[in-house]
Amino acid sequence: MSAGKPYEIVERALELSRADGLVVLAEENSSANLRWAGNTLTTNGVTRGRTLTVIATVDGAQGTAAGVVSRSAVTDAELEPLVRAAEEAARQAPPAEDAAPLLSGQGAAPGFTEDPEVTSPDVFAEFAPALGESFARSRAADRELFGFASHDITSTYLGTSGGLRLRHDQRAGHVEINAKSPDRTRSSYVTVPTADFSDVDVAALEAELAQRLQWARRRIDLPAGRYETLLPPSSVADLLIYLYWTADARKAHDGRTVFSRAGGGTRVGEKLSRLPVDLYSDPAAPGTEAAPFLIAHASGGGLSPEVSVFDNGLPLGRTDWVRDGVLRQLPTTRYSSGVTGLPVAPLTDNLLLEAGGTRSLQEMVADTERGLLVTSLWYIREVDPATLLLTGLTRDGVFLVENGEVSGVVNNFRFNESPVDVLARASEAGRSEVTRSREWGDYFPRTAMPALRVPGFNMSSVSPGV
């Protein structure tokens, strides 16, 4: 049995509560997807789901504790036991270090009592026929296309015992296409984000893949070493998302990250790049719109900066992490703001980089005497948190550029680089564009980045494979 509409679930859970404070997050998700292989559509599907998260707080003699319980597909009969489970978890938990008063409000935000938005296969009405035409062209040209297209809408309803009532509808779509030669010795890959698939130019993506496969007909073997390297926006996103995830103010203040100042404190105020780099988050940024308030299912951070369940509903605006090349702010909760002395700046679900560039990646290639053009990175892992040294692999096409033209494909490499050092050494940035990280796009899909020219990019060893 259904537990009702999302806003009704939030209200009923709040009414059932016996805790000192309660936060309820009701999330409705719908998704549609297409898969294809060997120039043939293989599967498609539509899913719907509901997740309910209840956060109870209990005030005790030693401080306030929080208990968090999340479940899917909650029925009417399961709602009260879920609330009681969160209350019991709070009673059993030690006082929370990040405890703070829950946010309050008056009246419901627009749309709070309306049904959630849903997607459907109709979102592919123009994309699917264009994809079919691309299959036909690829068969005729002796290419094979493999890939995936997905569209998701998640409607989040947030309520607190203090009267706060908020709603956000998050749309997220993307396309991934891999093109291969019939003998599988040549491979190229592209991925693009989209809100509704109306802006996806399948023919242009296919043409880009075909050009790369054509470039790859000539093979050039190069040794490991440091090369001037052009990183496309998607690969810049691969590196800077990881930088963002490790830019936690509390960890930096405690001396545990690349953003820790020698002798104590953080590096806020230090210049990180000679380029006029602006690295920021803004939930209203066109093409990367995100929730304008904090949504926290649990306290802590793991890989990403810490968040606090006590901060649920905290308003989010533009935050400049780096401005004009200078580190200005690190992500904080209300609690860690007090510890570090930095302003409250919660983690926001998008990241944008601008550095004054106006040229496209193609124009940057045309102005390159000799260097490498990387098309994608993958399997990125952290080596040293003190310097944020990362290692990873190139994949699906690294090309040698000579005298402004691509002369052929080269072998893949393992790289060892810190995104902080990449920003420091970058000699040119192109124009920023909405893009999608290949490595982290499923977890952090909303980014806008420029291409970067990086002298001496460390290709530390040769890697097999295409």
Short description:
The chain is of the alpha+beta class.
Written account of the structure:
The chain is α+β, with helices and mostly antiparallel strands. 20% of the residues lie in helices and 36% in strands. The protein is built from 9 helices and 22 strands. It has helices spanning 6-16, 76-92, 127-140, 202-215, 233-245, 249-253, 334-340, 361-366, 419-425; strands at 21-37, 40-60, 63-72, 144-160, 165-180, 187-194, 219-220, 225-231, 278-281, 319-323, 326-327, 351-354, 370-374, 377-384, 389-394, 398-402, 405-410, 412-417, 428-429, 433-435, 447-449, 452-463. Strands 7, 8, 13, 14, 15, 16, 17, 18, 19 and 22 form a 10-stranded mixed beta sheet that branches. The chain has a 6-stranded antiparallel beta sheet with strand order 3-2-1-4-5-6. Strand 10 (319-323) and strand 11 form a beta hairpin. The model has no long low-confidence stretch (mean pLDDT 96).
